[in-house]
Amino acid sequence: QRRKADEPPGPLSFPFLGNSWRVPAKKTWMYFYSLREKYGHIVMLKELGKATLVLNNVEDVQELLFKRSGNYSSRKSLIYAQKYRSGGRRLALLPYGPQLKKQRAAVYTMMNPKVVGAYERLQEQASMKLMASIMNDPSKVYIDIKRFTAETLFMLIYGKSFDGDEDLRTVLHILQSFTQDMHPYAHLVDRFPALDWLPDVLAPWRVEARKKGEYEIKFYTRLLSDVKARMDAAGGQLECFAAGLWENVEQLGLDELSMAYVAGSAFEAGTDNTAAVILWFLVAMMHNPAVLRRAQEEIDQVLGGEGETAPCYHHFDQLPYCMALVKEVLRWHPAAPLAGPHHTLKDDDYKGFHIAAGTTVIGNIWAIHRDDHLYPNAASFDPERYLVEKKDMSPELLIEGHYAFGFGRRICPGQLFAAKSVYIAMVRLMWAFNINPPKDGNGKLILPDINAVRPGLTAEPAHFNVVFTPRSARHAQTVQQEC
Ligand code: HEM
Questions:
Q1: ipTM of this model?
Q2: Binding of heme: at which residues (predicted)?
């Protein structure tokens, strides 16, 4: 298929089929990154007249997704994940418009920088519980990290901790399939929308999507109604995000299902990504033991090496290397390497290319973070690139100098809270433990594969083993006491 003169370059395209069929559903960011060598930074993929524009370069992302974000902040209507699975209500998949503004405004009441400081105590308690759990049974570290991220959010959103593991299991179950379903190339119907004309009997995928939707909305509605019941029992006195939704229901203009989804969306959006960042941190530490040692030295200089006091947020200003390390984890292996695909509302022209209304625009965070011009020797894990003077330190710096939280008007609304969560978890893990890869029968280190990820639009490292050793008996005792 011949390209129009003002169309960005891209792989060989066939009539009708286009070229999007070449895009793999696994590690899609690496495929997009690989196109850059042949076609340049701006690449176009096509299917049935619909275009996807991939931006592999920071300059283009800054111009289109930030400066022109009024036009570049919608989402493509995903038939499987949004229309049938989410009843058109899931925040992360909403098109630009009044419903999105209402839902984002609601999340902002919980996550704006003015209130995020108030959650430090909760985050410190939860991170201490994480360390105690690892201390008691290091083999469960994967689920402990998920519990840490999920429970912190659960407390904030629904105002209580988990009753057993049932709610945690349910949200992980929802997330496992949702991160795959929201991939724009995961379901044929999202590539060939005409398939949506088929009746249910010929479209089993639709029945499946509705079933998943019914399951999750039942879960999220139960959690929301439970908050209402507790509010009524307490004479209206309950402090949590969902209680705020009930109190301001008219002002926010959200119906009950949207309220259930907005609370559920914040819960699920924050759980997996935050956990993935901590898992990448463990991978990075096993591959870079000198970095871990240097961070531990910094922590020991400030807190004393005896293990009597665990680092807290009020030590933040004194730990510049630790802050740089956390930022480097967010850069080195972004948890959501393609952010959420953005969508244009109207025609636009850029660098001599025509970008039609209804184009999907993907900012490839992975490619930007691996750009050697922007981050010299980008593939290496090097916190030094983010080092600043102690006098310049502030928690807001955690979210600057990288694109791990996405772009423009769709940027992650939970970014500061999330960055502070991963910060406290990482600093405390480095304070409490030596983190090493296991050894095989011959004493050879079994290092995790940096390129192995679980399937989905988010990048979580594939299963790996890690050995945690408390740095001293006193460290272990402090954790148990504090917990
Ligand atoms: C380290 C952890 C996190 C990372 C790396 C992360 C990253 C991202 C990214 C890349 C996006 C897509 C932005 C775009 O499309 O341009 C996003 C969206 C979103 N995030 Fe986060 N996130 C994290 C934690 C959280 C937390 C704790 C919350 C809790 C409120 C949250 C809530 C959301 C929501 C609701 C969206 C959808 C926004 C929209 O579509 O308008 N995230 N996040």
A1: 0.99
A2: 412
